[in-house]
Write a structure and sequence with these properties.
This protein has 165 residues and is mostly helical. It is built from three helices and two strands; from the N terminus they run H-H-E-E-H. The chain has a two-stranded antiparallel ribbon with strand order 1-2. The longest helix has 66 residues. The chain is elongated.
Length: 165
């Protein structure tokens, strides 16, 4: 039986209990014990599986962090080597370099350098306004009754979370 079937069987037992006028018959008592036992076995299996998945998630997160660090190191190494070869090519005034395996050349591009943004004329600027919510402060104010808001605006909701150790 899966958890849904166990829950449904428990509801059926509860309905039978109510139909019986609240009297617990030996049959209902036995069914309740079996349902409870099935639930406990299923819940334990689910819990162990959740712990295993959580461990896998943690390992993957660690691996991702390690790979990000390795990627950053490789990018720094690549950029440093490119900078060295570019400087050497500029020093020797060599615009192109070619071998049977690769070609390298100095590419010239144009880049805008702005030293004082405030001195740039208005047609070339625009304003960005961003409003952010301080959720932590708002929650504290609502809890301490420092502010009252309509429940359609904001409210504090209680949530249930499963903890597994």
């Amino acid at each position: 039986m899966n958890l849904y079937e166990i829950e449904q069987a428990y509801r059926d037992i509860a309905d039978a209990f109510l139909e019986n006028g609240g009297e617990l018959t030996p049959e209902l008592d036995a069914q309740l014990a079996i349902s409870q036992e099935l639930f406990e076995k299923k819940a334990a299996s689910y819990g162990l599986f959740i712990k295993e998945i959580t461990g896998d998630i943690d390992q993957i997160s660690d691996l991702i962090e390690d790979l990000k660090k390795k990627k950053a190191r490789l990018e720094r190494t690549r950029d440093g080597l490119k900078s060295r070869i570019l400087n050497a090519m500029l020093l020797f005034e060599q615009e192109k370099f070619k071998t049977p395996l690769l070609s390298m050349w100095v590419q010239r591009t144009q880049k805008l350098v702005v030293l004082n943004e405030m001195a740039i004329p208005k047609p070339y600027t625009y304003e960005v306004t961003e409003i952010k919510l301080d959720g932590k402060a708002l929650k504290a104010a609502l809890q301490q009754k420092q502010i009252e808001l309509d429940s359609e605006v904001a409210y504090i909701a209680e949530e249930s979370h499963l903890q597994i150790r």
